[in-house]
Design brief:
Layout (H helix, E strand, L loop, with lengths): L11 E7 L5 E6 L3 E6 L5 E6 L13 E7 L4 E6 L4 E5 L7 H16 L3 H4 L2 H10 L5 H6 L4 H4 L28 H6 L22 E5 L46 E5 L4 E2 L7 E6 L13 E6 L4 E5 L15 E6 L10 E7 L3 E6 L4 E5 L4 E6 L7 E7 L10 E6 L3 E5 L5 E6 L19 E5 L2 E2 L13 E7 L24 E3 L2 E3 L3 H20 L2 E2 L2 E7 L9 H7 L1 H4 L4 E4 L11 E6 L1 E10 L27 E2 H4 L6 H9 L23 H22 L10 H8 L3 E9 L13 E2 L2 E10 L5 H25 L12 E10 L2 E2 L5 H14 L16 E5 L4 H10 L3 E3 L15 E3 H20 L1
Parallel strand pairs: 4-9, 8-9, 25-29, 25-30, 30-40, 31-39
Antiparallel strand pairs: 1-2, 2-3, 3-4, 5-6, 6-7, 7-10, 11-12, 12-13, 13-14, 15-16, 16-17, 17-18, 19-20, 20-21, 21-22, 23-29, 24-28, 26-27, 27-41, 31-38, 32-36, 32-37, 33-35, 34-36
Helix pairs in contact: 1-3, 7-17, 15-17
Protein name: Zn-dependent exopeptidase
Family: Belongs to the peptidase M20A family.
Organism: Jaminaea rosea
């Protein structure tokens, strides 16, 4: 499995590498922190708290950009609150391995009588080095005065991250976010600035602020200088911090060190907009070059600013800032518009700026002139740029790689020509062939009850827990709409609103209903009216058979918890205006039946040499030409067609022996229910058309054939020649292999295993019998090894499902549907009728329903939101916006009723 690094509590927005010997990975996040990871051990070594405790507004918002300067070992940070920040990490130990080495040295010192020095030496020695962290200017100058020591004030606890006055995506909020604070090792309660620290001690080891004027202290590392007396702090007991998580987050890594940037490491208001990108111009020799490297910063204000960085030999840097503004490259002078979202450089001379409109500006850093704008590669935000300078080998030229929000990756050569472009592929589930390329995860979201009502007493029963199941994967569709695609919209993959309907692949099956349910939960939660726990389990492989679904449930049963009832919404009404509740679905067995030519060579061409695929063929498992081999072998396609003819009587009856034996008998009450449904549908059709319903209206027999009786369907026949030769009237190839794809729909009380065995046995019996019949008829056949072979492969199964119509959960859903559609703005028909909503069944199958019911021993209820004309899986898939809004209302009402059960 692929290792994963866990620790951030919000989106990760930037990554940067510090190469060997550091072997660090920096990650910046919307949680306002930068984490430093060991790329070898995958441990989190340090957490940099980017916000400063001395700032008026301590939240920096999102951390968008990082850039590492290897020569000075300085990390530059671009923030949402328009500030630039930096710190020199030259004094930090490389890894936890370095810490352990120092610990071993301290143990040796104890043996030599140096106990006082070695007591707690591992952490103490670490603190000594960490206390010396400084800005690049001071690190270069080697400052060590008492003035520089004055900013080294120990931090008794990490600073409180207060809500920002302006930025809405601030790092952490103390209110209602104690869990996030704990994950960062922050105390959820923080003492005021004016009072001495009296709260609980800070967990874990702490370091002083990262300041531009810090130096090494001769004796008491970490102690403030005489000009800044240390506050009186209580002795902190040895409490370890909640550790940063290591690889796969199953075991805590060694406790990470927390560090805070000091005020001298901050350049506020560096831009007039968010700082999205940083880039450094390289220098052939940092130690000898007189030209300092440049740090470029790109912002939402559309400008790029160039800042002079100190070199290791620099000693004249400002005491308050290591960056000096050199030039501003104005966005107003470029032809491309929008924010600067990405930056990259070629050496010291060329800067690339990826813009919001898809253009890439090319700047000359010597003349500060715009050379050109690269267009034609992207038509949306350019989010990433990677520039590679050319090598010494011939043809190894400079390359620029760009990636955009349009799903494209482009490659540009040294002449700024677009040489290659890759497009992101839509992951569509088109069957078993796409399973390996579409490994989409189960998404689990848990919403705990949040009610304004008084909490229940300890003796009361636990809250109800509802599991909602949906799927976000979709069936295939054309890449573009219009023309002969069957879609009225420009693209099936772009959500389009028209005449009160939403068009797009997956809007009805099943993304629209998922969003309606999520919106219902969010509304109840935000209003403190959610009185049940809700678990949303959203699958990504339902359309390809839900492979591994049960196994995933087994592994994560503890995360999901106990479940009282399962809710799903993945079916449709019988017409355009009658609300329904689904109370049953058929099961399914999908199988492929393949007849193959034997692998032994059967013959040669008339010339005695083996022919190619378009000619004679005849080799092991090859397609052959009918003009050369026709009549000399048993053709797999003909054998398959003869076999398929024995599966049905030409009508609707399946000829597999025993197929109907276990079908539940039809009761008088069930017939009455079907008659009521047909009556309602016919009345609605008459109102719609203004006359008697025609023959196309559903009948009792047609509904029972669709819902309560099993069936067999043949979906298509493929052959081995289809992949090499396009089928046409001139095609004379005899395929070596022919495969039929079929499905059987099952109903109560049929067994999946029984029907599967019946099908396989019957097919093999009929296939063998056909060989004997042809032999006895006098037709000359090849020797026994030349007989074709039959393979039956069952690829997917799903059990049938029938709801308990009398259960309290189903009754609550009926009442919620009736209430939502009985309002004055509802066009649904006869909403106040006692027979509504209609209790219907579905002829299709959803594998997860029966699995979830049996796995959690919980009943399932099914709310159909779509109309009969939604065209799921077909062209012009759509869903009415009103149905989604009513669906949200129904779910909100149902969850409230479930809480009262």
């Amino acid at each position: 499995t692929t290792p994963q690094l866990h620790g951030h509590t919000s989106s990760i927005l930037a990554l940067e590498i510090a190469p060997s010997p550091r072997n660090w990975l920096f990650s910046a996040s919307a949680d306002g922190t930068v984490r430093i990871w060991d790329t070898i051990s995958l441990e989190c070594l340090y957490v940099i708290l980017v916000q400063g405790d001395d700032e008026e507004d301590s939240s920096v918002g999102d951390v968008f950009a990082l850039r590492w300067q290897k020569e000075t070992e300085t990390l530059f940070i671009g923030c949402q609150n328009t500030s630039l920040r930096w710190c020199s990490l030259a004094k930090l130990p490389y890894s936890n391995r370095s810490r352990r080495v120092r610990g071993a040295k301290a143990t040796d010192a104890i043996g030599r009588g140096a106990r006082s020095r070695a007591s707690g030496s591992d952490d103490e020695d670490e603190d000594n080095e960490l206390d010396a962290i400084s800005s690049p200017a001071t690190a270069a100058a080697g400052a060590s005065s008492s003035t520089s020591r004055s900013s080294a004030i120990p931090i008794p606890t990490p600073p409180l991250v207060r809500p920002h006055k302006f930025f809405d995506s601030d790092a952490l909020r103390q209110s209602n976010n104690a869990a996030t604070a704990q994950a960062l090792g922050l105390s959820s309660s923080y003492p005021s600035r004016t009072s001495s620290f009296s709260g609980p001690p800070s967990p874990g080891p702490r370091t002083p602020p990262l300041s531009s004027r810090m130096g090494r202290y001769p004796s008491h590392q970490g102690s403030p200088g005489p000009s800044a007396p240390s506050p009186v702090l209580p002795a902190a007991p040895n409490i370890e911090a909640p550790p940063a998580m290591g690889a796969d987050s199953q075991k805590p890594a060694r406790t990470a060190r927390y560090m805070q940037l000091g005020p001298s490491c901050v350049l506020p208001n560096a831009h007039y907009g968010y700082i999205y990108a940083l880039a450094l111009s390289s220098s052939p020799s940092m130690t000898s070059s007189t030209t300092p490297p440049l740090l470029a910063s790109g912002s939402g204000d559309e400008d790029v600013k160039l800042w002079a960085c100190p070199t290791p030999s620099s000693s004249t840097a400002s005491s308050t800032s290591c960056l000096e503004l050199v030039s501003t490259l104005p966005g107003s002078s470029t032809t491309s518009g929008g924010a600067v979202l990405s930056l990259a450089t070629w050496g010291q001379t060329t800067l690339f700026a990826g813009k919001q409109d898809g253009g890439i500006d090319v700047w000359d850093l010597d003349t500060r002139a715009l050379l050109r704008t690269l267009e034609g590669g992207h038509d949306d935000d350019v989010l990433c740029l990677v520039a590679q300078e050319g090598g010494e080998d011939e043809g190894d030229g400079a390359t620029l790689i760009s990636a955009g929000a349009d799903g494209r990756v482009c490659r540009w050569d040294a002449g700024f020509r677009l040489t290659q472009r890759w497009n992101a592929t839509q992951h569509q589930h088109g069957g078993a062939g796409s399973i390996q390329s579409c490994r989409n995860p189960l998404v689990l979201a848990t919403f705990e009850a949040r009610s304004g009502l008084p909490s229940a007493s300890p003796s009361s029963t636990r809250r109800k827990r509802v599991l909602f199941y949906g799927h976000y994967d979709v069936i295939t569709a054309p890449s573009t709409g219009g023309g002969g695609s069957g879609w009225r919209t420009a693209s099936p993959w772009t959500l389009t609103g028209q005449d009160g309907y939403l068009y797009g692949r997956g809007v009805s099956d099943d993304k629209g209903p998922i969003l309606a349910v999520a919106s219902a939960i969010q509304r109840l939660h935000s209003r403190r009216n959610l009185e049940v726990d809700v678990v949303m389990l959203i699958e990504g492989e339902e359309e390809s058979g839900s492979a591994g679904f049960r196994e995933c449930l087994e592994r994560h049963k503890g995360d999901i918890g106990e479940v009282d009832v399962v809710l799903l919404s993945n079916s449709y009404w019988l017409d355009e205006q009658t609300p329904c509740v689904t109370v049953g679905m058929r099961g399914v067995i999908k199988a492929s039946v393949t007849v193959s030519k034997p692998t032994r060579r059967l013959g040669h061409s008339t010339s005695g040499s083996r022919c190619d695929a378009a000619g004679g063929g005849g080799g092991d498992g090859d397609d052959v030409h009918s003009g050369v081999q026709g009549g000399s072998l048993r053709e797999p396609m003909l054998d398959l067609v003869r076999l398929l003819a024995h599966l049905s009587d030409g009508g609707q009856r399946v000829l597999v022996p025993g197929f109907y034996e276990d079908v539940a008998s039809l009761s008088t009450g069930e017939i009455k229910e079907y008659e009521e449904i047909v009556q309602v549908l016919n009345e609605n059709a008459e109102k719609e058309a203004g006359s008697k319903s025609d023959s196309s209206s559903p009948s009792v027999d047609s509904l029972m054939a669709r819902w309560r009786y099993p069936s067999l369907s043949l979906h298509g026949i493929t052959s081995s020649s289809a992949s090499t030769i396009k089928p046409s009237s001139s095609n004379t190839i005899i395929p070596a292999r022919a495969t039929a794809h079929l499905s059987l729909r099952l109903v109560p009380n049929q067994s999946l295993s029984t029907v599967r065995n019946q099908l396989e046995q019957y097919l093999h019996e009929r296939f063998d019998a056909a060989q004997i019949e042809l032999t006895s008829s006098g037709i000359a056949l090849p020797p026994p090894p030349g007989r074709n072979t039959l393979t039956v492969d069952v690829g997917h199964e799903a059990g049938w499902w029938v709801a308990d119509s009398s259960s309290a959960y189903t009754s609550a859903l009926r009442e919620s549907i009736r209430q939502a559609w009985s309002s004055s703005d509802s066009p649904a028909s006869s909403s106040n009728s006692p027979t509504l909503p209609l209790a219907i069944r579905e002829g299709g199958s959803i594998p997860a329903v029966s699995i979830l019911e049996s796995f959690f021993s919980a009943p399932a209820v099914h709310l159909p939101m779509g109309q009969a004309s939604d065209s799921a899986h077909l062209s012009d898939e759509r869903i009415r916006l009103l149905n989604l809004l009513k669906g949200r209302e129904i779910v909100m009402g149902w969850l409230g009723r479930v809480a009262a059960l």
